[in-house]
Structure prediction request, 603 residues.
Amino acid sequence: MNVQYVFELFGTFFFAISGAMAVQDKGQDWFGAGFMGFITAIGGGSLRDILLGSYPLVWIGDIHFLYAILLGVVAAFFFHKYLLRLPRMFVIFDTLGISFFTILGAEKALSLGVRPEIAAIMGMFTAVMGGVIRDTLINEMPVLFRKEIYATACLIGATCYLLLDHFTTLDRDVNLLLGAGVIILIRVLAVKFKLSLPAFK
Amino acid sequence: MNVQYVFELFGTFFFAISGAMAVQDKGQDWFGAGFMGFITAIGGGSLRDILLGSYPLVWIGDIHFLYAILLGVVAAFFFHKYLLRLPRMFVIFDTLGISFFTILGAEKALSLGVRPEIAAIMGMFTAVMGGVIRDTLINEMPVLFRKEIYATACLIGATCYLLLDHFTTLDRDVNLLLGAGVIILIRVLAVKFKLSLPAFK
Amino acid sequence: MNVQYVFELFGTFFFAISGAMAVQDKGQDWFGAGFMGFITAIGGGSLRDILLGSYPLVWIGDIHFLYAILLGVVAAFFFHKYLLRLPRMFVIFDTLGISFFTILGAEKALSLGVRPEIAAIMGMFTAVMGGVIRDTLINEMPVLFRKEIYATACLIGATCYLLLDHFTTLDRDVNLLLGAGVIILIRVLAVKFKLSLPAFK
Prediction:
């Protein structure tokens, strides 16, 4: 039960909360909310593992992830009013979630023997594709395309991690925290100053 | 050519009919209808097998499923007026389809060595994800989120099957029929009395 | 570095252009456009390989495809005005792309040991599913259902290739060109004479 594992469980828990809350104004029932929390939490990591052919998928091999998701859905139900009044806290949770998922996803891909460019993409996919699948299912334009610098931050953070891993002799955990820190920093600056990438055309 | 196999082929056939008919008021051509019937029929089982890493996928390993789908699309074309005048019959077909797909899906997952909680989810996925993919492709809110107790019934039925399988010494076929029976019963009651789960918020 | 490989890289490049340009009037930023180009270019082949359990996926095993995609996105940015004024050239690129992807996809599936009926479907999936995923993500009805005879042309061309491969002793490359030629011919005729399949109902 190391620190990284705890981070993964917490990230899953927070993703489940955000997934369940995403449908709250759609007249969904309990099942729909739970289903959405589930898809959001497992979507990115599952897609990464399927693309890489890495079995069993994390949540299928380790039942704790399923319970973290159930807890997240229940938490979303009981604390949603509180969470809605604290949108800033919600952004913090989301930012922590995507930053750690990105680095852990990139690291896993790298450990499976792919090139660093592919590992960076897999890190980003791990963080954002759960939300993309969720938004697609409820017929909304994926948040990926609407938010201030979001998936881009993940891609940059993953790249930093991979560069540090390749070119320095820093400890793996230090690299991990630095990579995640880059993502957090970019997101905080992007939200604070409403930064966005130049429009395509 | 045992009874279970016949059930699977019939379920595939009925899912193809419902998939092809789902696009009938969208101005689709023959190809679009066939494509939709195909996706609806194979989507759930394919997703289950991909998530579990179980190859070859059922319809790729056994060509009979493809022909069952083609027959379903042709049947949808010739009998659609008849089917539309008998919506009740349509609900019966759909209910039989999801109930057997759920139990067979859960059983397959279990036989691949996953935990019962995961097997229950896989059973439900087998039954409902083909329709979810279909609805997402045509930009409709998945039926999963609109219908009276639907995927929930699958999850409950799968759980009953798994409990019976684990805690009793009943014959496998008896468990299968009891599990499917639970799903059918819940669906019939839900449709008849317009039952639905409490809204999430 | 044979001819087929060059065709695959060019097809990937053109698909990335069409994917990036698909979002140009959606107010996307650079990242969104690149993401769309990426999904469009790798979606069909990735789905085929995942369904067949063939690892590693082409673009994960060979980094050149990733660079072909990046080039395509950059090309879309610099030449989009030019491309928009030449819609006919765009149709030509797209037609060349789907025709070669179809035949190469069908051939790969066949080489993995599936039946010809399945190989034909896999060929068609390779060509059209990238676009289907792209359209689904941006909440548009997949082009597959809107365009004149499109996926149908792929299915017919793949079938021709497989029949030639099975019943004649023609050289593989000749079969490949004949199969692709059938798709191009059907598409050209369909666009020129605005042909479409009969509506389903």
Observations:
- Residues 87-111 of chain B form the longest helix (25 residues).
- The mean pLDDT of chain B is 88.
- Chain B has nine helices and no strands.
- Residues 3-192 of chain B form one domain.
